[in-house]
């Protein structure tokens, strides 16, 4: 088969969970004799007029076609918000690629700043299209379903009025955000309803508000055209259904990982420091500040080392700078930067327990699966996608999201109970291998293709 995969960003510059999953799927499919192409985006910081919008390269012999773009309106659009989910420049090129490549299957993994209407193009050419939802971008413009006050959100409400207030709070000056926040929700809902129905296409901020008002309906309609929507956990499925995306197209399929290189090592408490680890992006919703704050709450004689692996995707950021300021003077904490994904087994082998202090509705972080493959217990926020992986007291520990004191208590449990670490490590649940995962994808592809003969 000829199979086309998409993702919003990709290696080598970007190496998060979605990108790692897409590469793993691509390599496993290629090893089975399929022809695989990855179509991705690349967010440019600066966007001169002469930029070459599309270029090509290879990652591990996989052909990658890349759309280079910034946060600007392109093509006939005048709204940056609309181009976040409906980009005519990408859509036009994607339609050409369907003609050039003639894929038997298209499997979308992310469409941010590409175009949700790529699904339309597949439908028109009668090409089966699938989606793996690795986050909540389809119902939340900010991906995370997390409000600025660090409280979790269940999705659009009141015609998207809550979304407008949220987006304004994180993207506009404080005086603008304050003004919008003070408008009664019912008034915001009526304004959005008018803009949603209007045939006028305003530009600037009003155009962005109109695009936001139409976003949910446009995306939801396209998702109904897919053959199957894969989600990693029942929690993710519930979140999409709560946000109004329903139907029989969902299938809960936990992510697979490349398990080669992982040796399940049973951790045991010794007189050496308890080594805690964090592996991930330095972004507010990942909750790294909760771990740093928890370290400061530990007793002075608590023998702990905290290894932090990661960086801000945008380079230096106020959040990352704030973390280092918060950790200043705490000799327990070590910032160790990033590492190549191939080194994950070695990195995990040097950690006694992995901390995932997320604040948002986690899907199913690949690093949590890697940790379990290595026999590394998890200490994590009690949030759907994580509590689906962790059985508290058996293979990990859970604490209330955002609670530094709760996290500190879990760390002290590991320090005080010398048998607990070994117990949690021995009960680590081995995740499915990427080959098993792709077995299931192939079955879904074949099922649809055979039904069309």
Note the main attributes of this structure:
Rossmann fold; eight-stranded mixed β-sheet; globular; alpha/beta; 14 strands; 453 residues; six-stranded parallel β-sheet; 17 helices
3D architecture notes:
This protein is of the alpha/beta class. It has 2 domains: 2-144 and 216-256 and 434-451, Glycogen Phosphorylase B (Rossmann fold, 3-Layer(aba) Sandwich); 274-426, Glycogen Phosphorylase B (Rossmann fold, 3-Layer(aba) Sandwich). It is 40% helix and 16% strand. It contains 17 helices and 14 strands. The chain has helices at 17-31, 80-85, 88-101, 118-124, 161-171, 174-182, 185-197, 204-223, 234-242, 288-297, 318-327, 344-349, 366-373, 384-387, 404-416, 420-426, 434-451; strands spanning 2-7, 35-43, 54-59, 62-69, 105-108, 129-132, 228-231, 250-252, 274-279, 304-309, 333-335, 353-356, 378-381, 396-399. The strands form 2 sheets. The protein has an 8-stranded mixed sheet, with helices on both faces. A 6-stranded parallel sheet has the order 11-10-9-12-13-14, sandwiched between helices. Helix 13 links the parallel strand 12 (353-356) and strand 13. Helix 7 packs across helix 8 (204-223). The longest helix has 20 residues, at 204-223. 45% of the residues are buried. The model has no long low-confidence stretch (mean pLDDT 91).
């Amino acid at each position: 088969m000829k199979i086309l995969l998409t993702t919003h960003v990709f290696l080598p510059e970007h190496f998060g969970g979605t990108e790692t999953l897409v590469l793993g799927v691509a390599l496993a499919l290629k090893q089975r004799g399929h022809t695989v192409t990855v179509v991705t985006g690349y967010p440019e910081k600066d966007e001169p007029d002469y930029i070459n919008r599309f270029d090509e390269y290879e990652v591990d012999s996989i052909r990658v076609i890349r759309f280079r773009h910034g946060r600007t309106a392109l093509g006939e659009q005048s709204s940056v918000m609309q181009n976040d989910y409906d980009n005519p420049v990408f859509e036009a090129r994607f339609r050409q690629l369907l003609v050039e490549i003639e894929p038997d299957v298209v499997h979308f993994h992310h469409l941010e700043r590409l175009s949700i209407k790529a699904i339309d193009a597949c439908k028109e050419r009668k090409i089966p299209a699938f989606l793996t939802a690795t986050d909540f971008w389809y119902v939340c413009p900010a991906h995370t379903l997390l409000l600025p006050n660090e409280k979790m959100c269940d999705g659009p409400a009141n015609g998207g009025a809550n979304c407008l207030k949220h987006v304004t709070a994180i993207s506009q000056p404080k005086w603008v955000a304050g003004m919008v926040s003070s408008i009664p929700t019912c008034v915001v809902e009526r304004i959005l309803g008018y803009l949603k129905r209007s045939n006028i296409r305003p530009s600037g901020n009003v155009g962005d508000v109109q695009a936001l008002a139409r976003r949910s309906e446009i995306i939801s309609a396209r998702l109904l055209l897919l053959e199957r929507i894969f989600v990693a956990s029942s929690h993710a499925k519930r979140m999409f259904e709560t946000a109004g995306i329903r139907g029989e197209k969902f299938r809960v399929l936990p992510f697979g990982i490349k398990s080669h290189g992982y040796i399940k090592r049973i951790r045991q408490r010794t007189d050496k420091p308890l080594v805690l680890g964090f592996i991930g992006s330095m972004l507010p919703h990942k909750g790294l500040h909760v771990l740093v704050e928890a370290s400061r709450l530990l007793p002075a004689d608590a023998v702990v080392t905290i290894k932090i692996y990661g960086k801000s995707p945008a380079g230096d950021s106020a959040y990352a700078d704030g973390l280092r300021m918060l950790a200043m003077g705490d000799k327990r904490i070590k910032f160790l930067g990033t590492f190549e994904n191939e080194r994950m087994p070695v990195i995990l082998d040097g950690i006694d327990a992995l901390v995932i202090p997320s604040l948002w509705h986690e899907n199913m972080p690949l690093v949590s699966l890697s940790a379990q493959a290595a026999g590394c217990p998890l200490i994590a926020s009690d949030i759907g996608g994580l509590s689906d992986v962790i059985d508290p007291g058996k293979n990990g520990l859970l604490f209330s999201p955002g609670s530094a004191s709760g996290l500190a208590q879990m760390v002290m449990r590991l320090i005080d109970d010398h048998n607990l670490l070994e117990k949690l490590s021995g009960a680590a649940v081995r995740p499915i291998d990427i080959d098993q995962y792709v077995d299931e994808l192939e079955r879904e592809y074949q099922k649809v293709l055979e039904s069309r003969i």
